[in-house]
Amino acid sequence: MALFVSMDCFLPTHQSQLGFVHHEAKDRSFGGNNIVKFQNASKTPQSLSFASSLRDIKPQVAVQRKGRSSSVQTAAVRHLTGSVTKTQGLRFAVVVARFNEIVTKPLLEGALGAFKNYSVKDEDIDVVWVPGSFEIGVVAGRLGKSGKYHAVVCIGAVIRGDTTHYDAVANSAASGVLSAGLNSGVPCIFGVLTCDNMDQALNRAGGKSGNKGAEAALTAIEMASLFEHHLK
Ligand SMILES: Nc1c(NC[C@H](O)[C@H](O)[C@H](O)CO)[nH]c(=O)[nH]c1=O
Ligand SMILES: CC(=O)[C@@H](O)COP(=O)(O)O
């Protein structure tokens, strides 16, 4: 049973210049919750110091009532985090661009390897190939809305050329993946490299800068778990 401490007893609105505490807490039920008001507080130094400490009390409190008094505890803050070790039953789609396949193939392999390392079964993964990164968003959105997947990993490699086409493709890919997630309510993970040159890309597809495909898969697992185990 939640116990709410009414903060108005700390405000100087009462003619008795309330401070706090007291011997007895007169509680009134209010819509199923108990509102505890501290009344007729004395103004001894102890009560004032206690008052200031009470100011720190979190509004949501606790519980055990014994007779006319109640032990007040601050509710602990809940922290919700997806687990990368609870993958049982989680299903994933991977959308991968064929453009710059020399980069996207090792990114995909990194993602599949990460899924395997975290016990995601092969039968729980679908890989969908698209021509280029520009096409990823619409497919990710369709996969998200299908209701078949807990998360969608999006893999591509946009590498700058001589024109401003890079900016159009890179920005469209990013906003496409973002929109897919927001519109479908299914986490869509941005694993699309946007690089100035091929070296940068290869370094991030299993080279000295790691494998961004594997990182994207791990993000997908955590997000899928967060949604499945905490946000349903
Ligand atoms: N230049 C890159 C592209 N371009 C192709 C587009 O993604 C798209 O397929 C085309 O504009 C037709 O809609 N795609 C990449 O993934 N990476 C590039 O560097
Ligand atoms: C990202 C691109 O579209 C780019 O690779 C195309 O190269 P360019 O700008 O030289 O046409």
Automatic annotation (TrEMBL):
<protein>
    <recommendedName>
        <fullName>6,7-dimethyl-8-ribityllumazine synthase</fullName>
        <ecNumber>2.5.1.78</ecNumber>
    </recommendedName>
</protein>
<keyword id="KW-0808">Transferase</keyword>
<comment type="function">
    <text>Catalyzes the formation of 6,7-dimethyl-8-ribityllumazine by condensation of 5-amino-6-(D-ribitylamino)uracil with 3,4-dihydroxy-2-butanone 4-phosphate. This is the penultimate step in the biosynthesis of riboflavin.</text>
</comment>
<dbReference type="InterPro" id="IPR002180">
    <property type="entry name" value="LS/RS"/>
</dbReference>
<dbReference type="Pfam" id="PF00885">
    <property type="entry name" value="DMRL_synthase"/>
</dbReference>
<comment type="pathway">
    <text>Cofactor biosynthesis; riboflavin biosynthesis; riboflavin from 2-hydroxy-3-oxobutyl phosphate and 5-amino-6-(D-ribitylamino)uracil: step 1/2.</text>
</comment>
<comment type="similarity">
    <text>Belongs to the DMRL synthase family.</text>
</comment>
<dbReference type="InterPro" id="IPR034964">
    <property type="entry name" value="LS"/>
</dbReference>
<keyword id="KW-0686">Riboflavin biosynthesis</keyword>
<dbReference type="InterPro" id="IPR036467">
    <property type="entry name" value="LS/RS_sf"/>
</dbReference>
